[in-house]
Specification:
heterodimer, A: 5-stranded mixed sheet, 1 helix, 30% strand, B: 3-stranded antiparallel sheet, 7 helices
Chain lengths: 83, 342
């Protein structure tokens, strides 16, 4: 089955991905992401869910890091880490 | 009497407005139309023909020129094709529709303390919770996006401190990564750009909020350590940044009261990287100070002679030299003579 995976980590990614029926949020995270799940805001269909929530066809799962480093400099337009 | 609008109606209007902005952008953007490259192809064929003609007639100079022109055309075509291919970034079906946007806005109302939509000003904004970085309370921020710029390459948004606790050294800095109400997105830049391209407003606001909640001291407009002024590494007192400087020796922050200027190189130093010249008592940094060859006293360059002696040792050496000279006058050398007492 297909779910929409929005990964806001790093360069960003949003596309439909194929997963096995019965995949939980925890399994999905372990397979697709690295790091500690507590460092991410995980939402399914824009709502918080338990880690054992079983993903349903066409669910939209969004993973956003809770800590993202900003920068500061003259050239904000074009550089990621400007200083 | 004017009927009061229900919140859901307001958010639905907002979603419709945002969709209309994306649709407008798509219809107005000529880049979305497929382009023909027939003209580029014809020019390329022409140059290829010139090149083979020159080659067959053994016109070396003409062949070289035709080759140059051919490859220039080829590179031009390659650049055009690459630019066209780079526009194909959105997989079909991923750009938010009215329902997606409506759900995003409803979720915003759940995630954030306050959500405002001003259709006249074409602005949608949310308020974050109070943000505290290390021990400094920066308060809440309003993240406000100008919806009429959603079609721009970089949509315009502002991050406005609700009750600004500005950096003492720079009034325009309300957060280590916000200056003049603009966020320096840092690592979030690509994700924010993509979220706005796809019309994922909830993701956009959450990404900005998470950047605001994160402190990156290695790349801040003003670091939290210096937020309420800089601490002098010598006397320990706090001072504005324009009243402080960095020691050219050890890079410690020192206030104007504690700074020493080296008499030789004229750089600024702290008390640990500077010492007085034993001759004139002026300040000299450890790189410039030199030791007298005779007495080991430390001196500035002005107080040290060409012979690397301090003033006292130089005078002493001169006197000794004079005495030797006087003695030499009565001792004729290498003539087999000697003085005889009368």
């Amino acid at each position: 089955m297909k779910v929409l995976f929005v990964n806001n980590d790093g360069g960003g990614f949003a596309d439909y991905v194929e997963i096995e029926t019965g995949t939980t949020v925890k399994t999905f995270f372990d397979r697709r992401c690295s790091g500690d799940p507590s460092s991410y805001l995980i939402r399914v269909n824009r709502q918080p869910v338990a880690s054992d929530y079983v993903l349903q066809p066409n669910d939209r799962i969004t993973i956003t890091p809770t800590k993202i480093e900003g920068a500061g400099s003259v050239d904000r337009q074009f550089s990621m880490r400007c200083k | 009497m004017k009927r009061k609008e229900k919140p859901h109606q307001k958010w639905l209007r907002c979603a419709r407005f945002v969709v209309s902005q994306y649709e407008k952008a798509n219809s107005e953007n000529p880049d979305r139309e497929p382009k023909s490259y027939q003209e580029n192809g014809s020019r390329l064929d022409q140059q290829a023909l010139r090149m083979s003609l020159a080659k067959s007639r053994r016109w070396k100079v003409a062949e070289a020129k035709a080759r140059e022109d051919y490859y220039r055309e080829l590179r031009k075509l390659r650049d055009c094709l690459e630019a066209e291919l780079s526009k194909d970034v959105e997989p079909a079906g991923l750009v938010a529709n009215e329902t997606d946007l409506f759900r995003d806005i409803l979720a915003l109302a759940e995630e954030f303390a306050e959500v405002n939509f001003d259709i006249k000003a074409k602005r949608l904004s949310v308020y974050t919770k109070d943000i505290m970085l290390e021990d400094i309370m920066l308060g809440a921020f309003e993240i406000e996006i100008h919806l009429d710029t959603l079609s721009a390459d970089r949509p315009y948004y502002q991050v406005i401190a609700a009750a600004a606790n500005r950096a003492s050294s720079n009034d325009s800095v309300t957060h280590p990564h916000v200056q003049d109400d603009r966020l320096c997105e840092g690592e979030a830049q690509p994700a924010i750009k993509l979220a706005l391209q796809h019309g994922r407003l909830l993701d956009f606001f959450q990404l900005v909020e998470h950047v605001l909640g994160t402190y990156n001291p290695s790349s801040a407009y003003v670091t939290i350590r210096d937020w309420e002024g800089m601490t002098c590494g010598h006397c320990g007192h706090s001072a504005d940044s324009d009243e402080c400087r960095e020691c050219a020796g050890c890079e410690a922050v020192i206030c104007d009261e504690c700074v020493y200027r080296c008499n030789d190189c004229e750089d600024s130093f702290c008390g640990n990287c500077d010492e007085p010249c034993s001759g004139c008592l002026e300040s000299v940094c450890k790189s410039c100070i030199r030791t007298c060859d005779e007495c080991d006293e430390r001196n500035c360059s002005d107080c040290l002679s060409e012979n690397e002696r301090c003033t006292t040792c130089e005078e002493k050496a001169n006197e000794e030299s004079k005495t030797r000279d006087t003695e030499t006058e009565v001792h004729a050398e290498r003539v087999g003579e000697t003085t005889v007492p009368a």
